[in-house]
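Preliminary data (for renewal application), iron/sulfur cluster complex.
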Amino acid sequence: MNEVYQSACPLNCWDSCGFKVTVDKGKVIKVDGDPNHPITKGKICGRGRMLEARTNSSERLLYPLKKVNGVFERISWEKALDEISEHMKEIKEQFGPLAVLHSHDYANNGVLKNLDQRFFNCFGGVTELKGSLCWGAGIEAQKWDFGDAYSHGPEDVLNSKNIIVWGRNVSRTNMHFYQTLQKAKLQGARLFVIDPIFNPTAKIADQYISIKAGMDGFLAAGISKEMLRLGLEDRKFLNSFTEGFEGFSELLNGISLQEISEITEVPAEEITKLAYIFADKPTSIYMGLGMQRYKNGGNTIRLIDALAAISGNIGIKGGGANYANLQVGQSFQYNELSLSNRKTGQRQFTIMKQAEEILAAKSPPIQMIIVTCGNPLTQVPDSNIVKEAFLSVPNLVVIDHYMTDTAMMADYVLPAATSFEEEDLYYSSMYHHYVNYGPKLTDPPGEAKPDLWIWTELAKRMGFGSDFDYTRDQWLQMSLALLEANGITVEQIKQEHFTELPVKEIPWSDKKFKTPSGKYEFTSKLGQLKGDNGFLKLSFPEESKWANPELAKKYPYSLLTIHPQKSNHSQNYHLFAKEPAVKVEAAKNIADRLGLQEGDEVRVWNDRGEIKGTLSILKKAHPDTINIDEGIWSKFGGSVNLLTSSGESDNGLGSILYDCLVNIEKWETKTASY
Ligand code: SF4
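Predicted structure:
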């Protein structure tokens, strides 16, 4: 007989939904929303529903595999783990532990997924990745400005008079916020969407502001400049709670409104109108995770923060420069879980430049890569170099559910359990502040094993098995140590299925910031401690006509690589009912200029690579904008990261995936002319 269990979505997504999962004879047969979940209230997206297929697919990896003479052969767990641990011991002895690289990302969340770090720390500390392909530049920016990256509680937007959704495709990536936006609008709030692409959120907006990709910081500066010209700034907030305003004011004096209008391609009168809107408080800003993926990305987020500060929309109900909510993740006790004190050495590569760093590493050279929760061959920029780097390393171990592009290159592939096959806690530091419980509902198929089992078995072989000698309940208890004082326990979460974490709904309401000065810092002391002068800067994307006119002549179009609708990054493409293909979305002016028609086969290229796909014309996108969704596997024509740059953001911790100029042409014509 069917049983229905409360569970949780493990995907790297804003919404961290509660699930109702139907299990029949030990098999997950349906994934639905849990109507009792206080935030997600029974509604989930197709990516969440597809976890049923992700669990049951006949393409699941069932057995450990070893590549012999270029061909994968089945191998026992005993033998695979013995061989991997022997390789690790030899590498440690000959080159030291830093010759092992842990390449990871956040494909599947779960508090206990972080125990991989414990394993590597007990091993002696391996080469780790720092920064992020996604939100890193913005997180760092908000740390410089506020001292940390905190957002308002999900319902606080209902207190806003004006809501600015800036570069966030809410209907695709944050669907429960979309519903709250509709409610806010019904209550009388005005909604403004700023984006290079006219997305479905723009459809419900009172006004859509179309902007040149990568120029969001200039727009924020223009609005701030107009606020100062019109005397609309919040002087009380500026005088009492901020530092370094004079430097910012000088920066704004160095550029005219007309120049800003030309750079952003937003009419000057619209910038002036936005200044009045910001002054009509409370006005909230909800940023997406795309506009920081440029060389100028850190400053872009800092300039938007500065606009929130100038207008006094910080620490008040219905306000906020909402980007991420690290309060949520900070509720958990990761130090105890990861045992970082066990490292004997430390080396970090940025996630963006891991390939170049692997190829350049000398002391010691990288001898082994272990990949967890990630698919770098598809997701890391400049895929050709990533491939070269990963091929150059003698031992590649990949832990995954499927034979991804990265797994295809591995020497050992270890089959992992999905979230329904192990017990864990799930949360997201992007939106709401509830932690959800996910019980073990079924057994993994074949010989697939939970990641924790793999680390425990490897630890035994490496001689530190006692560091992993804990039950799941004990691990979960350890992770909740900081929350015990609030009465939050493993038993309680298991019983109630979700629990509200004790985080501030209105961050910075006491106007006490976590910066070195305790104030909001227009000139960042943390930035100065890290070697920057800490000043806000007006800078261009690396690949733009302003920064590199020659490149822009050769490659006149801005390429975005947004989050796909039906796949969580690269995770679902192989499960689609219809085989996926590359869709090239281009602004109408490009099609008109080049005589391209809807459905044409096109080639998109730059100096790093090329990709071919089918054209879809975006009638309302900002001129000269192209989008190809990220994540598509090489066997389906991807990945779009063949085109993207492995450069790092201005503050060093983010990718510049959207800082990418390309050209486009009709492919059939080209073929015929050869
Ligand atoms: S992917 Fe996001 S929106 Fe979809 S079910 Fe999971 S948490 Fe919810």
